[in-house]
Amino acid sequence: MLAADMNWMEMAVRAAQDDRCVLPIGSTEQHAYLSLCTDSILAGRVAEEAAALSGVPVFPVLPYGMVPGFAAYPGTVSLRMATYAAVLEDILESLYRGGFRRILVVNGHGGNTPVGTVFAEWLGRRTDARVKLHDWWRAPRTLEKVRETDPEASHASWMENFPWTRLPGRPQPDGVKPRAALERMARVDPLTRREILGDGNFHGRYGRPDAEMLAIWEVAVAETRAAIEQDWD
Predict the structure, then answer these.
(1) Does pLDDT of 105 surpass 90?
(2) Cβ distance 44 to 112 under 8 Å?
(3) How far apart are CA 104 and CA 219, in angstroms?
(4) How many domains does the chain have?
(5) What is the dihedral of CA 21, 221, 111, 44, to 10 degrees?
């Protein structure tokens, strides 16, 4: 159930009955021809669909993350690590005060992954709580399905090209982009990185058939649902 569809009294009852909740986190950054909010759209949607059967509350997506490498692309919004860590700690504290003790963080952006350390530190202070960080796109079964479909999967390529991340009326290239100089990109400034990367796709096809994408999505939702329901101890 979406937090947006609940009032505070209903949330209090829910937390007393079941102390699980889901927090999706994403990013606002360049995704080539796809939406700037691709990571947030995907994290929020997979969390919502995965929690639908259980009624576990899904809080609004945190739409900003850590994206310093794409700072030269207009529309990209990046938080400093200290800022992001503080925001997440405040959110965890708020959820804890609301009665939630088992928090699944569904992450849609690779640059956010270092926050696992923030969660570990917070759990050292809140020893009766549990936090799980679920990178939905590279969870084991989902990643296996992606690689089975096409091993050339990367940022802003076909693997993020779902019907709900495309922008209507914006044509995309029909073909395969050669692999960018990723090793060089890792050690240069954002403007040089943009010059190397061009449109934003790291490598691979820009799109694949919807039937293939929906098959991947089905696995991702099921794996996220399992993360909500299992392995809290």
Answers:
(1) yes
(2) no
(3) 18
(4) 1
(5) -60
- Residue found by looking up tokens 């929690």 in the block: 51
Residues 50 and 83: their CA atoms lie apart, in Å, by: 29
Beta bridge partners of 58: 2, 22
Q: What is the DSSP letter of 38?
A: H
User: What are the residues whose beta carbons fall under 8 Å from the beta carbon of 199, sequence distance 6 or more?
Assistant: 32, 33, 156, 173, 177
> What single-letter DSSP state applies at residue 169?
T
Q: For residue 233, is pLDDT > 90?
A: no
Residues forming beta bridges with residue 25, ordered by sequence position: 62, 107
* 73 Cα distance to chain centroid: 20
Neighbours of 153 (CB within 10 A): 20
In 3D space, the residue among 31, 26, 32 whose CA is nearest the CA of residue 45 turns out to be: 26
Query: In this structure, what CATH number is given to the domain that contains residue 109?
Result: 3.40.50.10310
The b-or-e profile of 45-54 (16+ CB within 10 A means b, else e) is bbbbbbbeee
The boundaries of the domain holding residue 219 are 3-229
Give the chain's end-to-end CA distance (angstroms, integer).
24
Q: pTM of the full predicted structure? A: 0.96
Bridge-based pairing state of the strands 20-25 and 102-107: parallel
- pLDDT value, residue 150: 97
Joined tokens for residue 39: 């990571």
3-state secondary structure of 35: coil
* DSSP state, residue 79: -
Length of the chain, in residues:
233
User: Are 3 and 172 in contact, with CB atoms under 8 Å apart?
Assistant: no
